Input
Amino acid sequence: MPQNDYSAALAAISRLLGPQRLRINNLVERAKNNLSGMLAPRILATARPADRASLMALLRICREHQPAIAIWPVSTGQNWGLGSWLPASDDCVVVEMNDLDRIIELDLEQGLALIEPGVTQGQLAAAIADTSFFLNVTASAASCSVLGNALDRGVGFHGQRHRDLLALEVVLADGSELLVGGQAPLLGLRDGATLIPSAGPDLLPLFMQSNLAVVTRAAVSLRPRPERLAMVRFTVEASRLDAIVRVLHWGIDQQVICGAPRIYDASSRTVYGGAQPQTAYEAFVGVAGAEKCVEVGVKLLEAKLTEVEHASSVEICWPPFDDIVDPLARAVVHAFAGDPSQNDSMIRSSFGREPSQLDQASGSGWLTGLYLVPFNTKALLQARAIISRLASKVGCVQFHHTFNVLSRNTVDCVVGLRFDRSTAGANLARQALDRIAEEFADAGYHPYRVDNVGIARAMRHRDKNASSFGEVLRRVKYALDPVRSLSPGRYDPSSLY
Ligand SMILES: Cc1cc2nc3c(=O)[nH]c(=O)nc-3n(C[C@H](O)[C@H](O)[C@H](O)COP(=O)(O)OP(=O)(O)OC[C@H]3O[C@@H](n4cnc5c(N)ncnc54)[C@H](O)[C@@H]3O)c2cc1C
Output
């Protein structure tokens, strides 16, 4: 039981939101049923404000309570593989902002959307479907948020999503409302209370993967829609990862390819519902731009693939992609074009259930480790060797991995672990995640995004500078949130010292 008496505050929240928007009972069961098989913390309540005014009033009640009530804000709470909506520590009120789902403004001249936290990638992508802009979407469900994913440094088919954030409106622990982001003054956000930043340090990155504020609105940049696009698929044997590296380095250097190419290993193609693979890796590489450039670019890429050898099953996919039946390939090509509408069928074929049931229903569980790895053959083979070695040692857990190419020199290596939630699989998967972290750290590769309790694991493997990093964060946290009332434990190495 929590040591403090929160009953009066919870009653006030219930009056504010209406009892159906505050859940206090049966939370143990709800929390236990999470896709990642995480051990559930003790949760005070889940609160689902209907609009911005109720959110602000709810935050005020939590902040003014003595002692302050800790809150754990989520946008749509579908951080699957990383703990879903679960807080990192006990006795939080989880604030679910799903219903704050207004696209406040679309500026189709500048290519900007001003959104609330509950706006989903499916919703925003559909709202701009017939315009000259598109959204950088991920492979996750259409119902996933734009904002929560970007704040957690998610990865879309056109690169890291935090780079799409132009301005944020944040509420600090003391209730101050602040607008951050160098471009914020351009956005016409001139509410009485908010401070408009001008010259000086850009505070926006401080609120990504941090626990320093509740983000209440965001300005997101949209991408100019190319005249034409195509996706080139090809496969290579595991030992010939060098062929993929050479082709993609050439494509990036010569500006023939764009976006963040995805390279799936055989196991991930099966796990994500793709056709039974014949070869080890399948790469999806995008070409986009002016019509004639794309036609020429695709031909050049095809020629390069013949030249480097070892690439097989080369296929060019053109919109509207109607002939693609493989659920994984269908989702990937549509998502590259800014349309996440096919992701849900990929998830259905992968997990055998609706995205809305991923946490609740029993069945297969999923954990992920996300690492930055140099984009060269030696590093990719080394990452592969670590994963294969551990996979052969750990029974009951299915390992798979994907390389998302973020730049000429960096790859996001996603290691996925599938297990049966009804067995001891979750325990084994958690232990395997620790082993992966250890072996990747020994190779010099560190996670860039962790599950809700993963910061301790990540810091264990960091070098000696980690304690100075933790100390600086501790001071920033103390300055902004001395009683640790916001997302306690989230990406907070300072809590470990
Ligand atoms: C099959 C499959 C494919 C996937 N593919 C991808 C992929 O391609 N790329 C990718 O990045 N992920 C992927 N995921 C993982 C995950 O589902 C997505 O990242 C998803 O977008 C995260 O959930 P969300 O949008 O609901 O964010 P949330 O869970 O709402 O937010 C994430 C975290 O950010 C913080 N946060 C959220 N909103 C706020 C706020 N307003 N203020 C303060 N803090 C906040 C919270 O700590 C929260 O826990 C995939 C998952 C599955 C199952």
Observations:
- Residues 73-81, 85, 97, 117, 138-140, 144-145, 147-149, 151-152, 154-155, 214-215, 347, 350, 487, 490 surround flavin-adenine dinucleotide (CB under 6 Å).
